[in-house]
Amino acid sequence: MVIDAITQHVRLKPEQIRRLGDRNFGVGFDQLLLIEPPRQPDVDFRYRIFNSDGSEVEQCGNGARCFARYVRDHRLTDRNPIRVETMKGIILLYCNPDGSVTVNMGAPRLEPEEIPFIADQRQDLYPIEVDGRTLEISAVSMGNPHCVVYVKDINREPVHKLGRKLERHPRFPEKANVGFLQVVNRTFAKLRVYERDVGETLACGTGACAAMVAARLRGLLDEEAEIKLPGGSLRISWKGEGEPVMMTGPATTVFEGQIRI
């Protein structure tokens, strides 16, 4: 759900966001996106993201594509790329001729203290204890913390049960989005994501980016790959450390309306 806070005055309280997010009594959404005036001179907009429980979060890749589609369709800007300020820095949004949107998600953060993840030193794989057994996971930040679990068949994994335990694992002080990644070949992988404070979601742009980074660091994927989620596929590219992750995918308007708050 996207709200224009440029041409109208918008100040939402957490309880109002929760009601709007309720699919029975409100509108219903995974995230509410606010388009606000920039606070910095070198950006076009401020981009704020709220979960349906009213909590504000740092980043949402799929939301960024919707953000770009909205501001272009409503003629709030004709710039390309669009520079957008988030809680974790500036991202660039490119509107492509075919209607897709490419998002420069910035360089991933891999040091444990930057994710944040509790570990003595950085590793590509970390052993982590869950229910008395040891799993090997990757930890990546794309502006928000991600835990990547490597699996042979995502359809046979207990995503809800294991995702909830890893989301709240004490080694992730700010909790984590948990991605279950099945690498099919060097240019194609499947992903299911248990989103922090939300549960399993049909699509997660930052999750797809984090999965790409984790798999690339292990030598499992090429520089560009298709990441297929239950809600559709994204094209992700990453040249390597210090370079930004580029995410390309669709953004489609479902409906528009007005609501009195």
Describe the structure.
This protein is an alpha+beta fold and 261 residues long. It has two domains: 2-104, Diaminopimelate Epimerase, Chain A, domain 1 (Roll), CATH 3.10.310; 112-243, Roll (Diaminopimelate Epimerase, Chain A, domain 1). The protein contains four helices and 16 strands. The chain has a 16-stranded mixed beta sheet that branches. A hairpin with a 4-residue loop joins strand 3 and strand 4 (56-57). It is globular.
Describe this protein with a few key phrases.
16-stranded mixed β-sheet, globular, 34% strand, 16 strands, Diaminopimelate Epimerase, Chain A, domain 1, alpha+beta, 261 residues
Q: What would you say about this model in short?
A:
By secondary structure, the protein is α+β, with helices and mostly antiparallel strands.
